[in-house]
Specification:
Number of strands: 6
Radius of gyration: 17 Å
Largest sheet: 3 strands, antiparallel
Oligomer: single chain
Strand content: 15-25%
Bound molecules: zinc ion
Order of helices and strands: HHHEHHEEEEE
Number of helices: 5
CATH architecture of the largest domain: Orthogonal Bundle
Helix content: 25-40%
Distance between the termini: 42 Å
Length: 156
Protein backbone atom coordinates (compact mmCIF):
# COMPACT_ATOMS: atom_id res chain seq x y z
CA UNK A 1 0.00 0.00 0.00
CA UNK A 2 1.38 3.36 -0.96
CA UNK A 3 0.38 5.10 2.24
CA UNK A 4 2.11 2.51 4.34
CA UNK A 5 5.26 2.64 2.25
CA UNK A 6 5.50 6.38 2.67
CA UNK A 7 5.07 6.03 6.39
CA UNK A 8 7.76 3.41 6.63
CA UNK A 9 10.13 5.44 4.53
CA UNK A 10 9.82 8.63 6.53
CA UNK A 11 10.32 6.95 9.86
CA UNK A 12 13.80 5.94 10.96
CA UNK A 13 13.94 2.26 10.10
CA UNK A 14 15.55 1.13 13.29
CA UNK A 15 13.82 3.40 15.77
CA UNK A 16 14.00 0.59 18.26
CA UNK A 17 12.98 1.38 21.75
CA UNK A 18 15.85 0.74 24.03
CA UNK A 19 18.99 2.32 25.24
CA UNK A 20 18.52 5.41 27.30
CA UNK A 21 15.26 7.04 28.23
CA UNK A 22 11.99 5.76 29.56
CA UNK A 23 10.83 2.80 27.51
CA UNK A 24 7.20 3.39 28.39
CA UNK A 25 7.19 6.97 27.12
CA UNK A 26 9.01 5.87 23.97
CA UNK A 27 6.42 3.20 23.27
CA UNK A 28 3.73 5.79 23.87
CA UNK A 29 5.17 8.35 21.47
CA UNK A 30 5.80 5.63 18.92
CA UNK A 31 2.14 4.59 19.05
CA UNK A 32 0.98 8.18 18.83
CA UNK A 33 3.29 8.93 15.92
CA UNK A 34 1.69 5.98 14.12
CA UNK A 35 -1.77 7.39 14.82
CA UNK A 36 -2.69 4.78 17.44
CA UNK A 37 -4.24 5.70 20.74
CA UNK A 38 -1.99 4.37 23.52
CA UNK A 39 -4.51 2.14 25.25
CA UNK A 40 -3.35 -0.02 28.12
CA UNK A 41 -3.34 -3.15 26.01
CA UNK A 42 -1.42 -1.54 23.16
CA UNK A 43 1.05 -0.10 25.65
CA UNK A 44 1.54 -3.46 27.34
CA UNK A 45 2.05 -5.34 24.09
CA UNK A 46 4.11 -2.52 22.57
CA UNK A 47 6.37 -2.60 25.58
CA UNK A 48 6.89 -6.35 25.20
CA UNK A 49 7.51 -5.98 21.47
CA UNK A 50 9.79 -2.98 21.35
CA UNK A 51 11.75 -3.01 24.59
CA UNK A 52 14.15 -5.74 23.49
CA UNK A 53 15.50 -4.62 20.16
CA UNK A 54 14.60 -6.19 16.82
CA UNK A 55 12.83 -9.49 17.05
CA UNK A 56 10.56 -11.91 15.24
CA UNK A 57 7.69 -13.53 16.98
CA UNK A 58 4.34 -15.13 16.43
CA UNK A 59 1.07 -14.02 17.96
CA UNK A 60 1.15 -17.11 20.16
CA UNK A 61 4.68 -16.30 21.29
CA UNK A 62 3.72 -12.75 22.20
CA UNK A 63 0.63 -14.01 24.00
CA UNK A 64 2.81 -16.33 26.04
CA UNK A 65 5.14 -13.45 26.95
CA UNK A 66 2.19 -11.29 27.90
CA UNK A 67 0.88 -13.98 30.23
CA UNK A 68 4.25 -14.32 31.90
CA UNK A 69 4.55 -10.54 32.24
CA UNK A 70 1.00 -10.44 33.63
CA UNK A 71 -0.26 -8.19 30.86
CA UNK A 72 -3.98 -9.00 30.87
CA UNK A 73 -4.85 -9.67 27.23
CA UNK A 74 -6.60 -12.39 25.29
CA UNK A 75 -5.06 -14.15 22.31
CA UNK A 76 -7.66 -12.42 20.10
CA UNK A 77 -6.50 -9.04 21.39
CA UNK A 78 -2.91 -9.98 20.65
CA UNK A 79 -3.88 -10.84 17.07
CA UNK A 80 -5.86 -7.64 16.63
CA UNK A 81 -3.13 -5.49 18.11
CA UNK A 82 -0.43 -7.08 15.96
CA UNK A 83 -2.51 -6.41 12.87
CA UNK A 84 -3.12 -2.80 13.92
CA UNK A 85 0.61 -2.33 14.49
CA UNK A 86 1.30 -3.86 11.09
CA UNK A 87 -1.20 -1.60 9.34
CA UNK A 88 0.33 1.40 11.09
CA UNK A 89 3.77 0.40 9.79
CA UNK A 90 5.24 -0.22 13.24
CA UNK A 91 5.99 -3.85 12.56
CA UNK A 92 5.71 -6.08 9.54
CA UNK A 93 4.45 -9.52 8.79
CA UNK A 94 6.70 -12.25 7.49
CA UNK A 95 4.74 -15.21 6.20
CA UNK A 96 6.87 -18.32 6.40
CA UNK A 97 4.41 -21.13 5.96
CA UNK A 98 0.69 -21.16 5.45
CA UNK A 99 -0.12 -21.60 9.07
CA UNK A 100 2.54 -19.40 10.63
CA UNK A 101 2.93 -15.68 10.52
CA UNK A 102 5.84 -14.01 12.21
CA UNK A 103 5.77 -10.38 13.17
CA UNK A 104 8.99 -8.44 12.81
CA UNK A 105 9.65 -5.40 14.97
CA UNK A 106 12.07 -4.19 12.31
CA UNK A 107 9.70 -2.71 9.73
CA UNK A 108 12.48 -1.82 7.29
CA UNK A 109 12.95 -3.89 4.15
CA UNK A 110 15.09 -6.93 4.78
CA UNK A 111 15.15 -10.65 4.06
CA UNK A 112 15.23 -13.72 6.27
CA UNK A 113 16.68 -17.12 6.88
CA UNK A 114 14.19 -19.58 8.31
CA UNK A 115 15.63 -22.54 10.19
CA UNK A 116 13.41 -25.52 9.65
CA UNK A 117 12.77 -27.67 12.67
CA UNK A 118 13.63 -24.82 15.02
CA UNK A 119 10.99 -22.46 13.62
CA UNK A 120 13.45 -19.64 13.92
CA UNK A 121 13.69 -16.57 11.73
CA UNK A 122 17.01 -14.72 11.35
CA UNK A 123 17.64 -11.48 9.49
CA UNK A 124 19.84 -11.65 6.43
CA UNK A 125 22.22 -8.78 6.92
CA UNK A 126 22.43 -5.91 4.48
CA UNK A 127 21.44 -6.31 0.88
CA UNK A 128 23.05 -9.69 0.28
CA UNK A 129 20.24 -10.77 -2.00
CA UNK A 130 19.53 -9.49 -5.47
CA UNK A 131 16.37 -10.63 -7.15
CA UNK A 132 17.38 -10.39 -10.77
CA UNK A 133 14.11 -11.00 -12.56
CA UNK A 134 10.68 -10.20 -11.28
CA UNK A 135 7.55 -11.39 -13.04
CA UNK A 136 5.15 -9.10 -14.85
CA UNK A 137 2.37 -8.12 -12.53
CA UNK A 138 -1.32 -8.05 -13.45
CA UNK A 139 -2.81 -4.83 -14.83
CA UNK A 140 -3.46 -2.23 -12.20
CA UNK A 141 -0.99 -3.79 -9.77
CA UNK A 142 2.49 -2.87 -8.69
CA UNK A 143 5.04 -4.70 -6.60
CA UNK A 144 4.85 -3.41 -3.04
CA UNK A 145 7.94 -5.24 -1.88
CA UNK A 146 9.76 -8.53 -2.29
CA UNK A 147 10.26 -10.74 0.74
CA UNK A 148 12.81 -13.48 0.42
CA UNK A 149 12.82 -16.34 2.93
CA UNK A 150 15.77 -18.69 2.55
CA UNK A 151 14.98 -21.93 4.32
CA UNK A 152 17.82 -23.64 6.14
CA UNK A 153 18.24 -27.02 7.74
CA UNK A 154 21.06 -28.57 9.72
CA UNK A 155 23.48 -30.59 7.62
CA UNK A 156 22.97 -34.31 8.09
ZN1 LIG B 1 13.60 -9.52 10.36
Amino acid sequence: MAAQDTQTATRPATASVGGTGCVVSRVKSRLQAAGLRPTRQRMGLGWLLFAQGDRHLTAEGLYEEARKARVPVSLATVYNTLHQFTEAGLIREVAVEGSKTYFDTNAANHHHFFIEGENRLIDIEGSDIAVATLPNVPDGMEIARVDVVVRLRRKA
